Amino acid sequence: MNPLLDQLQPYPFEKLRQLFAGITPDPAYRPISLGIGEPKHPTPAFIQQTLADSLGGLASYPTTAGSDALRATIAGWLERRYGLPKLDPATQVLPVNGSREALFALAQTVIDPSRDALVLCPNPFYQIYEGAAYLAGAQPYFANSDPARNFSPDYKSIPAEVWARVQLLYLCSPGNPTGAVLSLDEWEELFALSDRYGFVIAADECYSEIYFKDVAPLGGLEAAHQLGRTGYPRLIAFSSLSKRSNVPGMRSGFVAGDADIMKKFLLYRTYHGSAMSPAIQAASIAAWDDEAHVAENRAKYIAKFSQITPMLQQVLDVALPDAGFYLWAHVGKLTTLSDTEYARRLYAEYNVTVLPGSFVARDAHGINPGQGRIRMALVAEQDECLEAARRIVEFTQKQANRR
Question: Per the database record, which ranges form the Aminotransferase class I/classII large domain (predicted)?
Fold first, then answer.
């Protein structure tokens, strides 16, 4: 067996299952889960219909590069969304089976394990980054988020000898779980470090279309263009239809950026067997070409967050995020409970599931930046999320009275 597999930690939801082992929640409450970031809004009918109408394509093997039509559609969306100059669909865009598998695969493409490689990850983070690092023969290096910096890591504090070993840097903007969006100044700082040390930047942007302000979140390719970085050197952006269009089961996304890296990535994927079904490609074209359903989806999240955030602020240290569909809350405003004990008691007493923050972070540089926090995914319909929020408020107030 591959010994690198032994370095992998259990996934957060396996840890959650173990945390809840032996608990029977109060049957007076129906179960509500805010634990998993799986979109629950209905899939638009036109996407479903396009998928059903395209099943004739199942008789053919798809190419790893995807169809010319899909790549051109994705390039067009990037140009409209981010104000980019015309992209070359043949060399700068590649469809993938969801951003998750592509985020993992990129590390296997760009890491040279013979050079004592590091993969720099935000902390807290999406666990795929860590697994990708280990299985590529590298070690993760965690950059802790700082609440005082809108949960951005202080990249300036990372020693030069660490940067010299970094071959890949994962970013998530808007962030999971914090919802923070990188500023142009932060992008400029990271591009300068990439130029100095030669590492690749993987910009995970799968939450980019769920936001609460009038201005859409800045993307990595957009930042590079605004800073005059022609050709997007050492930058690969990842996006997905899962959250944007409520189609997580389609497993459809794309990568775009540096053509030299994309050429090697396509070679890797050709051997890996990562071609997208023709039916999924057709449905993806329909989804990327339509913005009306995206605006409707965003409006639902705005309505939920505008009601639920003030409710939870009564009992938790929490603020409206820049974007995304998570609330990243500290439980210590009224209680002395740890994040794991808070989640465990909330489940037992009120049948609401939240994810302990320490499950999506690692002990690094003397702290676990997820400790004392919980992640709540407001992915269900509004009434269900409001009911969960009411229970959380009642539960937390009870804990405060027990102090």
Answer: 32-392
